[in-house]
Amino acid sequence: MSSAERPEYFTVDEYLSLEDQGRSKSEYVDGWIRAMSGSTLRHNRVKLNCLVQLSLKLRGHPCQPFDSDTRVRIDQEGKKRFYYPDAQVVCDSNELISVFQDRPVLIIEVLSPSTRRYDLDEKMTAYLSIPSLQCYLVLEQHQPITIVMRRTNGGFLRDDVQGIEATIDLPFLGCSLAMSDIYDGIEFTADCVQEPEEEYEVF
Asked: Which CATH number fits domain 40-196: 3.10.150.10, 3.40.50.10700, 3.90.1570.10, 3.40.50.10580?
């Protein structure tokens, strides 16, 4: 890669300043800024279903859900990252004037063709390094299938939940999410092939 093609390095302060200007929505990975593409209506429906259910179940609870406008900051061995999860639940929140959270207990991502490899590799590794995190949910769009990464005394263990009648237990929040509620209004296809979407772009 030539110097002309190499992405520009940004400090955390520079990144946050660019985001405050509201030109676009971008994630920050160890100095590099990655612009985010838009999502399909199906993707947003699944995400909003999760947020509605969590909001109802956690009403009056000290733990509260946040949508994809709220970043999560990750300090992994001195390397800073900022992501916009589709949803997160936080019990020990930053100040209300903050633009990101540091201590989520639950993170939810809805898979898309453009984000799949990030959500299941890069982001999963980063999310599971968060000391407060108890569970990471990765949801398929076109089938009632969820990857559940749960924290145990021996580390995170994977559980695959399938079927519209299944339920995802979240004992650390004292509630559960029914797959029928997560996928309410979603018409399932014969397979998991998803319509194409634009991929991430690097500034």
From this structure: 3.90.1570.10
